[in-house]
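Readers of this paper often ask what the protein records in our data store actually look like. This encoding replaces a full spatial description with a residue-level series of whole-number codes. For reference, a complete record is included directly beneath this paragraph.
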Amino acid sequence: MSDVRRPVTGDPVDAALADVVAQLPGTRVIDVGGGSGTRAVPLACLGCLVTVVDSSVNALAILHRRAQDAGVAHLVTGVQADADQLGTVVPPAQADLVLCHHLLEEVDDPAAVVTALATVLRPGGTASVLVTGRLGAVLRNILAGRYAAARSVLTDPDGRLGSSDPLRRRFEPSTVADLLTHAGLQVEAVVGVGVVAGLVAGGVRQSSVGTDLELADLEELAAADRTLRDLAPELHVLARRPAARGWAAPGGLVE
């Protein structure tokens, strides 16, 4: 892999996305709810053509400035629209890669949004979905001594702390995978993000005899472990739209 194709940060999600786009020069990316471009601009720096669909005018203005500063403004387009309007601003089967990061926790109808993601993907295209983990939130509250909060997240149907919770829902690997599968996508990978960091307090990390390299190695192993990944603060899912002819997209579109 050449230097231009390396991820520009140490973020494991960025690294996974870089691996996806490395297989297809000029990747067409739709970043739904991508806001100020924290994912979009690094992908544009890798040569991708990126469209960010977001409801916030202010976020899109920051996106534009960030793209200009990075010298990739010609590769980045911002479109103001809500996630459930995706099908009205992006033609079907146009994207090689669709990002939906920390959006399903907040929208009215997650299933409708995922269906829209599947529809704008070309056959063989990939969806990258990043969500907040339910069990990770339970464990973090337990470790912090917030037992009532942990109980609320564990027992609430949507994994919420209560009516004042800023998130409308949290996910387990099976629930987010079911959403994608029901939209006609094939789930290829589910990994935990920040498994070890979510378990170890900052003070403990600073006083630890372990090295940063050892920590990174452990984090990578834990991210893929089926038990430990469920305890991660975030869950990253990669799913693919089937490339086989005759696949029927939600809504009846047949390729």
User: Anything to note?
Assistant: The chain has eleven helices and seven strands. Strands lie at 28-32, 49-54, 76-80, 95-101, 121-132, 186-193, 234-240. The longest strand covers residues 121-132.
